[in-house]
Amino acid sequence: MKIAINTGGGDAPGLNAAIRSATLSAIRRGWDVVGIRNGYGSLFTEEPFIPLTAEKVHGITMDGGTILGTANRGNPFEMPYQKEDGSWDLEDRSDEAVEVFKLNNIDALVAIGGDGSMRIANRFSKKGIPVVGVPKTIDNDIWGCEISLGFDTAVSTATEAIDKITTTAESHRRIMVVEVMGRYAGWIALHSGLSASADVILIPEIEFSLDSIAKKILEKEEKGETYSIVVVAEGSKEVDGENFVKGKVLGQSEQLGGVAEYLEKKLSEMTGKESRSIVLGHLQRGGTPSTSDRLISLRFGAAAIRAIAEKDFNKMIVMQQNEIRRIPLSDVADKMKLVPLDGDTILTAREIGICLGD
Ligand code: F6P
Fold first, then answer.
1. What is the largest CA-CA distance in the chain?
2. Which of 117, 153, 244, 285 to mutate to test the pocket of ligand 1 (most atoms within 8 A of CB)?
3. Where are the alpha helices (DSSP H) in the chain?
4. Neighbouring-strand partners of residue 6
5. pLDDT of residue 266
6. What pLDDT, in 10s, does the model give residues 270-312?
7. Distance from CA of residue 9 to its chain's centroid?
8. I need a labelling partner for 309 at 20 to 30 A (CA). Which of 62, 125, 169, 347 fits?
9. Average confidence score pLDDT of the chain
10. What is the pTM of this model?
């Protein structure tokens, strides 16, 4: 038996723990393990695989990033190529990728990634590649999985950063707008904003009104609370507005960003207060995984190998009620897990007086 492990999409703390766990569990069953170098794009290069041994994965549980490398591009089903007239288009090279797996005697694939990677995994499974998915993303937006690996660490990093921003906001009596990641879901913003006692939390699931945010800030001012912390998810939109998009490259998802800068300017104009914005950005993806992320990742990695051993393919490993379960990859592809507006975390925010922008 020979398996390949891929890490795809943005990196997240805990990836190395999952790689280690999957590798060791497979080796203990007498299997061979390889990792795909820098994501699927390398399947079309001369050296797509990195042999994974016990020595190679020794001591990496606590390391951020991925020893395999990853990429937000290189989807074999949508590879960019340059046409004769110089323009660019996408082509499906998945049959070549399947051929590379076959030529290298890969019996099964462990696809560690986010929603995009699960979509690719599902498409590979339809082409006859036995796949098991492992949910990874700091955004925590993978459908069917209560918590994905990387989320806990990212929230802690964002919370700690907002704590630090709060002391300078207070000293300068300013509005500080903090933009966090999360794509089209507000999990990081809601969890870090609530934990760091933000005054305003804006998430993509609730379109915001500038009037409502300004009102909250001015109400605080009247009570003598002269600073305000606004935490905004990068995918948040104003009522009837559009997403703030920084750019789009062919074969990659659109790059979100800019909402904090917009709010900084608007809120300053509307309240007469000095305002600053900060984008936490990739800081949230870095660093040592938390204990919780290490454990989830180790459990996910071993569970993926267990599924392969049982020949239970084309499934994604999930955490549900703190239990490891498997759900069909086809159920996950093309869906997103958004913050439920009637969930108790949102209710808690409202009940303690946090403005959610509506
Ligand atoms: O999906 C993880 C994520 O970090 C998002 O929160 C963010 O929008 C995106 O990746 C950023 O990707 P990149 O590394 O391409 O800037």
1. 71
2. 285
3. 15-28, 94-103, 115-126, 151-172, 187-195, 210-222, 259-271, 291-309, 329-332, 344-351
4. 111
5. 98
6. 999 999 999 999 999 999 999 999 999 999 999 999 999 999 9
7. 8
8. 62
9. 97
10. 0.97
Residue nearest ligand 1's atom 10 by CA: 10
Residue-wise burial string across 212-224, b where 16 or more C-beta atoms lie within 10 A, e elsewhere: ebbebbeebbeee
CA distances from 45 to 92, 96, 116, 133, 162 (A): 16, 11, 22, 24, 42
**Six-digit token string for 350:** 């409202």
Which of 8, 255, 273, 249 minimizes the C-alpha distance to 116? 8
Listed in sequence order, the residues at least 6 apart from 103 whose beta carbon sits closer than 8 Å to its beta carbon are none
Give the tokens for residue 49. Answer: 């695989």
d(C-alpha 12, C-alpha 41), whole Å: 19
Query: What are the CA-CA distances from residue 218 to residues 207, 268, 272 (Å)?
Result: 20, 11, 10
Distance 10 CA to ligand 1 centre (A): 6
Give residue 139 CA to ligand 1 midpoint distance, Å.
Answer: 9
Contacts (Cβ under 8 Å, ≥6 apart) of 275: 174, 175, 176, 177, 263, 264, 265, 267, 268
Give the Cα separation of 280 and 286 in Å (integer): 11
